[in-house]
# Entry
Amino acid sequence: MEKISLLTLINGVFILISNICLTSSVSVFVSRQTAQSVLSRQKRFNKGGLEEVLRDNLERECLEEKCNFEEMREVFENVEQTREFWIGYVDGDQCLSSPCQNGGTCKDGLSSYICWCPIGFIGKNCEIELVRQCDVNNGGCMQFCELDKEQAVVCNCADGYDLSADERSCEPRDHYPCGRLGKNIANTLATRTLITEETVIQTQGIEHMNVTEKNLTTANSTNTTDLSNVTISPTPRDNHWDFFPTLPTVKEETNTDQRIVGGLEAKPGEIPWQVALVHKKKNLVFCGGSLLSDVWVITAAHCLVDGGIGKFFVRLGEHNVEVDEEKESDHEIDEHHMHPNYQSQQSHNHDIALLKLKTPVTFSDYIIPICLGPKTFTENLLKSATISLVSGWGRTRYGGLESDKLQKVEVPYVDRTECKGSDKISRFMFCAGFLTTRKDSCQGDSGGPHATRLNPDTWFLTGIISWGDECAKEGKYGIYTRVSRYINWITNMTGIRVGTSG
# Structure
């Protein structure tokens, strides 16, 4: 009975549906072929017993249908390749927009990307060019250019200067900041005329100099002197190597020693950081040095080997050693510190020493310290400068002919590769001077400054006169202690600030 009722119900439903279809203009059924394409699942490319053996087809497996990681692995048969494709398959290729700049290579990641930057570029998109940060135009900084953790430019200043509101310029904190000439001296030098070398006719062993007068401009690296009463003499007499090189002396033609190597007389106050180490009994300048602060002087270590700390004193503001010009200031030494690695009997390496004065120096137009900079800054300044300035009195140690007045000479930096062809030097030294032109430091005034000017008007210590093979000998250069190598040691000993990093 129940079966008859069920059949009756089914038949009734069928009749009802048939009536609806007959009264409707739209059919509810599709063709057999269409229905089959919808209901049938596409068979995999590899099927049957060989599915786990044969290499799958990427287009059939994962592009025509959605696949999982395991199915994709069957296509590549390599886990790393599968992962690379999976990252782009899941969320798209993040590198399609080419986000990496300056030749960077884009590596797609899951909802992210990584730029592999070429040398000299950093940042998420390689958008920061390191060489343009500080190496080009000093990063826009007046003095020191440094990079913070985000590789952004941070300007800084030497001891005695404050960073201005523009975060680029440096303003002097005191009346006599390091590295700058006194205002009165600078104004006086700016109005003078300069007699300069115009042509040099060089022959073997003979040099003749013609000079003309021209107006001095601030572009000159030194506001130099008048040579109208000086003539240049023939070849200087050869003097064998001496460990107390001094600056070239400018003598009148009557000088029988004729030890002239191209120097000029400095004006009083033109090199106010110049220091003289004076032997007490003989009252002779036997070495030079540079003033770093009101109590610290830097010089060459070999000057202290035989000099004896109690046998000499420090004189500042000196110009003419034969005349008391009432601008000098003498100071006793409280402490001396030779570099711990200096060995006088083994090599010329680490030829550097510090002297602490018993009484602080009173600064004036004639006594001003020279600036120190961070290691990288000092090294870059040394190498990039066209010329630098060395100075001294041209004496031999404890006697001999000398220049009464402070002398100066401009010398260019010489690449170490070129210099090693004529002298054996280490990375703690550098060469400066000319291969043939007779301009060089000479005997007797080691320890003096090798100073380089940072535009517009601030001088930094870049070297210390150390040693040389004779004086201005053809094919030989003057050798200087490389100050950049010792910035950390100097600052640790003296407490002088040279920016946020040494």
Remarks:
- The domain at 133-172 is CATH 2.10.25.10 (Laminin).
- The chain has nine helices and 25 strands.
- The CA atoms of residues 388 and 452 lie 5 Å apart.
- The longest strand covers residues 193-203.
